[in-house]
Design goal:
By secondary structure, the chain is an alpha/beta fold. Helix content is about 30%, strand content about 25%. Helix 1 runs parallel beside helix 5. It is globular and about 65 Å long. The two termini are about 35 Å apart.
Length: about 400
């Protein structure tokens, strides 16, 4: 192999698509039974404007760049995207001061169109917001998308252009060779020249396997959500934020591209990287904070709850680095919020990194996205997958999980 990509979340799949534009032998390894099974399937689905990250940080640079790439990317991959704008609410003078700081931070980051608006304008835009609001920061470039559809479509496009994808293969060891590495999984061993670590909450463990001695540790941060019925789709049209805290953007009220409303997430550090349970205490916190922003939410409109795990870390920024002790391995670690927004820019970084290593030859016959093959791997036997992949219904191959 030329390149092995570890991890099938939004970062790994967009990197795979970006690199599939070149004449390379690429393998993506995913430990789960399907892609987008980690943070990519359980998040707020927001394409952030970029006013929040610290200026000149990796988060700030990739957030703003990624935001700009989204319209063309989603159009090319036939995935929904909408710039619905965001309102960050302040209910007192102290919070209002933070909004001014965020506006200035956004200006330094290159975010366009930010403005502070007052109560009357807020309620004119969003009449269901708490009338006690004092002012808001309006971010028109904020948007929403479908993270898992984007990951699926990106990897399908990469697969159409020749990359290999192995599911249910967990990386268990990395052995350095004179030129390249041996990547050992629970099923096989592979020789590769380069590795891209996009392992999500397990990225720190991949680093350790590669012999990287660096004081970096991922702390799983759980966030819980409510999903509201589509009959509540007119509750808000913008993404509604509270004034953020040092560890979280706070509990939000978020429209989705599917027409539902999300409430959440809270933020709780946990020990178990697979702890996706919901709790009474956590959901109570989400409800109380969401209804402070938008008071008249009926509990009868709740149709589901869920939790996701974010890759919080002690680094306080995205770790994007190749270490001298492990040359040929590019690490994308601690990719928490705004990871979804930043992912297209992270894919560009991976591309430029590899260009510095090798002379990459663009494919003359790179295929754009023509069909959407929506295969729910975890529900199908191998022989069923092979059969169903031959059945096209219009532009979408849809597999009923109850078949």
């Amino acid at each position: 192999m030329d390149v092995i990509i570890i991890g099938g979340g939004i970062v790994g799949t967009l990197i795979a698509r970006q690199l599939s534009k070149y004449s390379l032998k690429i393998l993506l390894l995913e430990r789960e039974s399907d892609i987008a099974m980690g943070a990519t399937k359980a998040n707020s689905a927001i394409v952030h404007a970029g006013y929040d990250p610290i200026p000149n940080s990796n988060k700030a640079k990739t957030n703003v760049r990624g935001n700009k790439l989204y319209p063309e990317l989603c159009s090319a991959l036939k995935v929904p995207f909408k710039r619905n704008g965001a309102l960050i609410l302040a209910f007192n003078d102290e919070e209002a001061k933070v909004l001014e700081e965020l506006k200035e931070r956004g200006r330094k980051n290159g975010v366009m169109g930010l403005e502070i608006i007052k109560r009357d304008e807020i309620l004119k835009r969003e009449p269901n917001i708490n009338p006690e609001v004092k002012m808001a920061l309006y971010a028109p470039s904020s948007g929403i998308t479908s993270p898992y559809l984007l990951a699926i479509s990106a990897l399908e496009n990469a697969w159409e252009n020749g990359i290999e994808v192995h599911l249910e293969e967990e990386v268990q060891g990395i052995i350095k060779r004179k030129r390249g590495y041996i990547v050992k999984t629970n099923k096989n061993s592979y020789l590769t020249r380069y590795i891209i670590n996009a392992g999500g909450v397990y990225a720190d463990e991949i680093m350790k396997m590669a012999g990287i001695d660096f004081p970096f540790e991922i702390t799983p941060r759980k966030g819980e959500y409510y999903v509201l019925d589509k009959k509540m789709r007119n509750l808000v049209s913008s993404t509604i934020f509270p004034t953020p805290s040092p560890i979280s953007k706070g509990v939000l009220v978020v429209p989705t591209v599917e027409g539902n409303i999300l409430l959440g997430p809270n933020a709780k550090d946990v020990k178990d990287k697979e702890d996706k349970s919901t709790t009474w205490e956590g959901l109570k916190e989400v409800w109380e904070k969401a209804t402070k922003l938008v008071p008249h939410i009926s509990f009868s409109s709740v149709i589901n709850t869920f939790a996701g795990i974010r890759a919080g870390s002690n680094y306080k920024d995205f770790l994007i680095k190749e270490f001298k002790s492990a040359e040929g391995i590019l690490n994308f670690a601690g990719i928490d919020s705004p990871g979804l927004t930043s992912a297209p820019a992270l894919a560009e970084i991976a591309e430029e990194w590899l260009k510095d290593k090798e002379k990459l030859i663009p494919k003359k016959n790179f295929k754009g996205k023509e069909k959407i093959l929506f295969i729910l791997e975890s529900f199908l036997m191998k022989k069923e997958k092979n059969l169903l992949k031959k059945i096209l219904l219009g532009d979408i191959l849809y597999v009923d999980v109850n078949m």
